[in-house]
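$ run holo --ligand "phosphoenolpyruvate" --emit tokens
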Amino acid sequence: MIVEMAKGASKEQINHVVERAHSFGFEVQLNLGTEKTVVAILGSDTGKASTDAFAVLPGVEHVARIMKPYKLASREFHPQSTIVNVNGVEIGGQRVIIMAGPCAVESEKQLTETAKAVKGCGAAIVRGGAFKPRTSPFSFQGLEKSALKMLDKVRTEFGIPVITEVVDIQNIDAIAKHADILQVGARNMQNFALLKELSKLRHPILLKRGFSATVTEWLTAADYLLAEGNQQVILGERGIRTFEDSIRFSMDISSISVIKRFSHLPIIVDPSHAAGHFAYVPSIAKAAVAAGADGLLIEVHPNPEEAKVDGLQSLNIPNFEKLMAELKPIAKAIGRYI
Ligand code: PEP
Ligand code: MN
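-- output --
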């Protein structure tokens, strides 16, 4: 941490900063410039002290961190890229993992039909919401526990892992029993109580980016999941809210390279929730694979017109099949496969 003193700060004020640093157990290095003094606060755990603890002291002009606020999710801490193993399906390896299925599980028929079709097209994982975090309490909330049973049946029948969202602590155990990946949705990215409980599991967790969260906040939230030793964390970019209103969310393609640079965790991209309309899904999906995403999470419905949730952004099966065919040469061009 770097503490910049104001021009003309007194010797006493500088000493006060030094004493405060020592009280935390940190070392200091003083740079007595002709105009300004800069105090470098050194130590392996300076991240534990807030910058405010120094900013509040008299004579201090500015405090800046050199270290990132996240640690466990950082590449500095863990240089090698993490590969998450979901019952033999590796996320973060050479294969680009396609997860596909309905936004919400609506019936056994709808889920089975979709699972069969997406598996046939090369999807490695089936998605399906059982508990839905809806903006309005009057919207369809999901089939909840009965949907979990349907997902469980699909994974056994088709031999394919399933992913579903966890919205609260009380359903963690039931979801962990019936699903292979637990998804934390954008609205819960900073639900720290939920993240702390999930950190106790050893199940893979997909942490979606909050739509107003910076990459730094997202990775710091991932630290909550890693804190109790769960190493099976996947990041999910799903678009952020910007001033642009012609599309549901703006897909931040650049976050893929930023994550790859600063974190060891795999990253997948959800083009459907960014798009909000099926017409935009294929181009966003292709851009994400080209940019180095480790996988995609795509909403597919056998009959989008009848969908209870997110029908407009869901691909029908022929469109999903077409997209899969288009994605393959893109993956190949960057030395990967689907
Ligand atoms: C979802 O995947 O069904 C979902 C609700 O996504 P998000 O949390 O990204 O909005
Ligand atoms: Mn959805």
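-- notes --
The pocket of phosphoenolpyruvate (ligand 1) is lined by residues 103, 129, 133, 165, 185-187, 208, 238, 270, 273 (CB under 6 Å).
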